[in-house]
Design brief:
two-stranded parallel ribbon, Peroxisomal Thiolase, Chain A, domain 1, two-stranded antiparallel ribbon, 4 strands, alpha+beta, 144 residues
Length: 144
Amino acid sequence: MQSCSLLSLATAVPPHVVEQHEAKARAREAFGGKKALFDRLSGVFDNAGIAKRHIVAPQDWYLAEHGWHDRNSLYLKAAEDLFVEAASTAIEKAGMAPDQIDGVVAVSTTGIATPSLEARAAPRVGFRDDIRRVPLFGLGCAGA
């Protein structure tokens, strides 16, 4: 088995920030007339240990009616942009070129992408066509 090395690491976050107490209030709004259901689930906001969240659209977007197509389209655009930003930064910090990368692992806990996220973003980053890819999705928070 060949050894591998992690030469750098980079992150990218969505542009909109919401404090946890705001997220909880907005979630209560989103549940509409299902107050009892929200009250049973709201402890997640209190016990998560999260101070703020980064989201890809303004808060009001999440309260409007959007079908699956609109939600996943927003995910695809935002996730691909964030992937390109993080990958490009990590490659630059490592002092490498994109065509020197042999493998990439992409984890998403949100939407569904076919082709997968790293495959969609590969041409924008400059990866070779034969790069080894490991896409992980649909695992919820455990995927991260």
